[in-house]
Amino acid sequence: MVSLAAARLARPFMALPFARRKQIGVGLLTLFILLFPVLHDNDADIDSMANASAYATLALGLNIVVGFAGLLDLGYAAFFAIGAYYYGIFTAFQVMPPWTSFWDPLAFVGLVEKINQGGPDLVHFTLSFWIALPTAAVVAAFFGVLFGAPTLRLRGDYLAIVTLGFGEIVPIVARNMDKVTNGAAGLNGVQAPRLFGTSFGVSATPYYYVGMAMVALLIFVSIRLRDSRIGRAWMSIREDEVAASAMGVNVMRFKLLAFAIGAAFAGMTGVFFVAKLQTATPEMFGFPVSTMILVMVVLGGMGSVWGVVLGAAILQLLQSWFLQDLTQWIHALGELTGIGALGRVDLVESIELIFGIILVVMMLFRREGLIPATRKTAALSLDAQHAVVRRGGFTGLEALGTQDRETGNALDVRGVIVRFGGLTALNKVDITVPAGGVVAVIGPNGSGKSTLFNVITGLTPADGGSIKFHGRELIGLAPHDILKVGVARTFQNIRLFPNLTVLENVLVGQHARLRTGPFGAVLRLAWVRAEEARARDWALNIIALFGNRLTPRANQMVSALSYANRRRVEIARALASQPKILLLDEPTAGMNPAETLELAEQIKSLNNLGLTILLIEHKLDVVTRLADTVIVLDHGDKITEGRPEEVRRNEEVLRAYLGRAAGEAANAA
Amino acid sequence: MTATDLLVQQAINGLSLGAMYALLALGFTLVYGILELINFSHFNIFMVGSFVALMALEAMGVVGQQTVMSGFPLVGVLFVAFLATTMFTGTLGVLIYRFLLRPLRGVKGPAAMITTIGVSYILFNIVLLTIGADAKNFPNPLPPIQWAIGGAVLRLREVLIWVIALLLMGGLTYFVQYTRLGKAMRATAQDPEAARMMGVEVDRVIMTAFFLGSALAGAGGMIFGLYYNFTSFIVGFNAGLRAFTAAVLGGIGNVPGAMLGGVIIGLIEAVSGQMIATGWTDVIIFSILVLVLVFRPSGLLGRVAPNKS
């Protein structure tokens, strides 16, 4: 009966749209959290909820680093320690320099006070908790950049071990610098926060509210960042660093930003935690703490904001409530059954063992966590799936506006050399692409075609030569800067961001054309909203160019698309960056003849709009149809260049493709 | 002791530590070379190995510092303990791979690494909960033979450690270079896909790598016990981090590199403990790791890892 009534109540609720249900859910949760200390007047329980809030803020911070940007940080507790010691040192009776008149102005604003413990007057720092919170964020972010700058270039797995080491070093430094930190014994007499002249003291309730307010704030910040240009940039790095940089994301800067913001969250939490405990020892910040935070993130779902908060809450409740009860039940069971071993089980002490088991079990059976970051999308209707081959190129290009037709040479490649060890992949290659033209590069496998694209887009360094784009030297520029000047590309082996939607992939292409920074993203001012809306419109217009192929799938994960559709998304993503030249690496690979023809005509229509195109292609009918000029590479050398029909008859080309005998046969004929 | 004597003494100590780190580093390198996976469970397989050796010795009646043996009984007891340890840890490594890591092959991202962290944590806590937090006395059955080199002292245990380590490393080098499975292993390290197509059973190769690596870690754990005369649930972390540094320093994936790196790290630890302060040794070793990774990520002898584009 009860379940029936519940079902009857639930039905209208489930009928509401997801966003509305979510609003109601968040509202109820907020109400519960606000009323909890009033309804449940138990200091120990309120205290463990306050601790849970500290864990939740840590998990939210690590989620930005691990979940959003994909950087496995195993020493995250280091930043927690930095925030904690920052507040601890500036409020405890540990560092007390002799009093001089220098301190008078600081005493006036309340940062220090004069004390006398017998002997000369000393300085006691009295940093306010409310000033410490934001400044600790800044201090920790600074250390995040300091640790991150040398290490974030490393491959992901190396980063894990280096951060593990940093996480170890910070407590060691705290232990060894005993003059400042009081060593292993820890700081004593850290001040409790004061508000309107009253100290928080030892009651848990004020900490509870401060902690919950911090969780709410950081959830808000996390969500705002996630749903912005910043969050998309992070996720693109997580999914494919090379593609992200080729699409205009400054990978190093955004990794540092993730590290700094994650560190800032931890620094704030450190202040809160130490103010609550009123002591700080090196042991509070070791590897077990970093692991515990990682367990929360993994349990809740990497990249899932609500998930990691849930993960933190579950682990805290597990430690303070469930495991104690469960241990008692097991003991009772032991007495009942006469199995002595059960009486010795202590699940509270086994908590770290349980952490390990959680990590392993989640990775084996539910890698996306309890609340996955991405929601499954509904299957398409037959109607939406239906796509017909359309001839005649893109329609609706007017939505993209017109390009200024430029004259002269768009791309001037002169004497470019690329070597890989002993192999010369490109040997003094010269290529000219006139503005508004279509140039195709052909050649057997291993002839250096893709290397040519990589060197133009800055992914492979050149060993000599020059590449000028509208007169501007590209060699030496980073890939994201090359995209910014108007060179966009696709990849031969498709490098999309598989766990982002079609729309998000295309929006990443817009990255370099948008200005929203982290503060803009969090505050979401009017201009940020307008910019985001424009970017979405633009991206949807580009997706709409491909008609039924992509539009119904705009909110699907790219990983669920067919091969040909992925190629289309990659082209859409490149177009979204508003390029002046488009570099297409085998765009029709894997497409059937009809689809190939469709795409060839679409490329032609882009060219008619004024877009310059450099193309690698094996299908000679596509090349003949599109290209004004064909360049043939073989073993890193340019063997010929000319109009398509000329090149087809060139004997050197035949030899390169078909072998020496074929060349001679052609010669004899 | 004069300064020279001190230096000789630290070189002796450093070589012994280095031999232990080298054995442990080989396990990291074997697995990384094939799977590009930092196997964090290796840290505590080493620790488990030291406890298995301890139990094996105690089971044979070699307890604490009182039992002193010599000649064949000594060699026999050590050999049996060695076999028990390496078989146990080797099997443990294979089981970990077979049941926890193999299902994750082909999964992108940090899933496998997170699993090894979890496994490492499980091993650590099982030992903590069952054996306890106190350091345990490790038997020392070696006769107190020692030689004076100037003012420095070379003890029998150091010679024994060098001999064991050299035999194991020689055996591993022979295996990797000259046997069929060893060749398959090197081929898989170069390109798993190509190796598979050429008929290499990649899964068997990986299991072999896990078995050998974990067995060597177990041997390292036994050496740890013989050298320091104690063991504890906590010893895996520092030794593991140092051994990993050694593997990276030598060039990860590179078998001779791991040995060279191990010896260098052992020497650095011994000398820095002497000349600076033991409290900062971790910081020094770790700074080396960061510097190598940043400025010479391929290590001294070159990185060997699958070519993935």
Overview of the molecule:
By secondary structure, chain A is of the alpha/beta class. Chain A has three domains: 39-91 and 127-365, Orthogonal Bundle (ABC transporter involved in vitamin B12 uptake, BtuC), CATH 1.10.3470; 392-486 and 579-669, P-loop containing nucleotide triphosphate hydrolases (Rossmann fold); 497-578, 3-Layer(aba) Sandwich (Rossmann fold), CATH 3.40.50. Helix content of chain A is 56%, strand content 12%. Chain A contains 28 helices and 16 strands. Chain A has a six-stranded mixed beta sheet with strand order 12-13-14-9-15-16, sandwiched between helices. Chain A has a four-stranded antiparallel beta sheet with strand order 8-7-10-11, with helices on one face. In chain A, strands 1-2 form a two-stranded antiparallel ribbon. In chain A, a hairpin with a 2-residue loop joins β15 (629-634) and β16. Chain A starts with a helix and ends with a helix. With 309 residues, chain B is mainly α. Chain B has a single domain (3-295), classed as ABC transporter involved in vitamin B12 uptake, BtuC. In chain B, 72% of the residues lie in helices and 4% in strands. Chain B is built from eleven helices and four strands, in the order ααααβββααααβααα. In chain B, α9 crosses α10. The longest helix of chain B is centred in the N-terminal third of the chain and has 33 residues, at 3-35. Chain B is globular and about 60 Å long. Chain B starts with a helix and ends in a 14-residue tail after the last helix. At the A-B interface, α7, α13 and α16 of A face α4, α9 and α11 of B.
